[in-house]
Design a protein that fits this description.
Blueprint: E1 2-4, E2 11-13, H1 25-37, H2 41-51, H3 56-72, H4 76-84, H5 90-110, H6 114-125, H7 132-144, H8 148-161, H9 165-182
Antiparallel strand pairs: 1-2
Helix pairs in contact: 1-2, 1-3, 2-3, 3-4, 3-5, 4-5, 5-6, 6-7, 7-8, 7-9, 8-9
Length: about 180
Amino acid sequence: RAASGGGGGGSCSLGASGSAAELSPAQAVAAGWCLINAKRPSEAAIAFERGLAGSGKTAEDAAYGKSLALLQTNDSRGAANVAAQGQLGGKRRQEIGVMALEQRIFASYDKGDYQGALSLLRQRSAHASETRDLTLMRGWSHYQLGQLDEAERIFRALDRQMSTKQSRSGLAAIENKRTRMVY
């Protein structure tokens, strides 16, 4: 029978019982991609897990798909673990690792762990160039830690590159904080 699609609609063939367990590894991988597209990452991870029993490209695609599915469920550590288990090629392993680090960076920042966010940003920079949004987060992390000179350096560099509401907002916040500190 086909599992009905949720979120993204459509249906994904999971066999007569609606379980990926009875599918061949290649069929399970195909069902996993269908479930990812239907915005059902938890079910996709299960299908991709079945696909890991395959070999060669099937196993690599299953590991990649499972990693992406876990990232979509905010399980960055699980995604990184799957990627590190050796079935992914170097480029895909690095891609998943970078995405997992980004997820952890945002989580650290959101819970107010600015030092942790900066540490994770340093780790990520060893694997990929920093995006503008992550550089803004770096600036705001320094700002939140009271490291105004470093925050200003970052926001000024961003503003020189391309002046945006975000870069100007960072500079204005620093100016306001310094003005308040004088009085």
